Amino acid sequence: MLSVLICTKDEEKNIERAIKSVQGLADEVIVVDSGSTDRTVEIAKELGAKVIFREWKGYPDQLNYGIGLCSGDWVFVLDADEEVSKELRESIGQAIKNPKHDIYMVSRRTYYLGDFLKHAWYPEWRIRLFRKGKVRFEGLLHERAVFSSSVGRLKGDLYHYSYKSLKDQYLKTVHYAYTMAEIMKSDGKRFRLYKLIFNPLWHFIKVYFVQLGFLDGLRGFMVALSAFFYTFLKYKFLYELELKEKFSKLW
Fold this sequence. Notes:
Elements: E1 2-8, H1 15-20, E2 28-33, H2 40-46, E3 50-53, H3 59-69, E4 74-77, E5 82-84, H4 86-97, E6 103-112, E7 115-116, E8 124-131, E9 136-138, E10 144-146, E11 151-160, H5 166-186, H6 193-210, H7 217-246
Parallel strand pairs: 1-2, 1-4, 2-3, 6-11
Antiparallel strand pairs: 4-8, 5-11, 6-7, 6-8, 9-10
């Protein structure tokens, strides 16, 4: 039995596509909603999903809670802004029918500025299919899978519709960069000028040249530039947080 788990909040524009992509494959769809004010819950229920409300306590914590609600022997984690491709559906079905591993990774492909990226941000391997009880998630900003079993890879892409617009992307980028700076500071990491200078450059080079992002044309360049921007902001915010601490009486 396969349970598909989706965590949501205000995802009325995405939730229908996500759920429909696993209909006929999933034995149940569990939606853990953290207080949507739009039609997310209504749409999910209309499509046959079981919807449970839980106050937001961080994405990894929501996932672990949701996994506990799943009845299936197998769990597939699906974000509301994702869609399971036809090839991936077939791979999931085969893996459950004749499992060679307890855990499987899927390759996520991002839709960006009108088309799917072929190189930048791809392949982005994520652990999404696993036997219940074999994986738990940790992390403060982004989830990290914790496991001990062997891991296989599934064929087919998990389509990711991550940003509504460039404005949406960069608003999220600023938020993630600041949150990461706070995490770094709480972990005792200190600002270093060389990291502010060289780390953003490395991330641009990694996306644009190492991942062959230049083959995605202008879209690949813009993705690499956003990687530069995020990394630069992260260290800049860390510097600001240190200054606030040092000059707290004047700030």
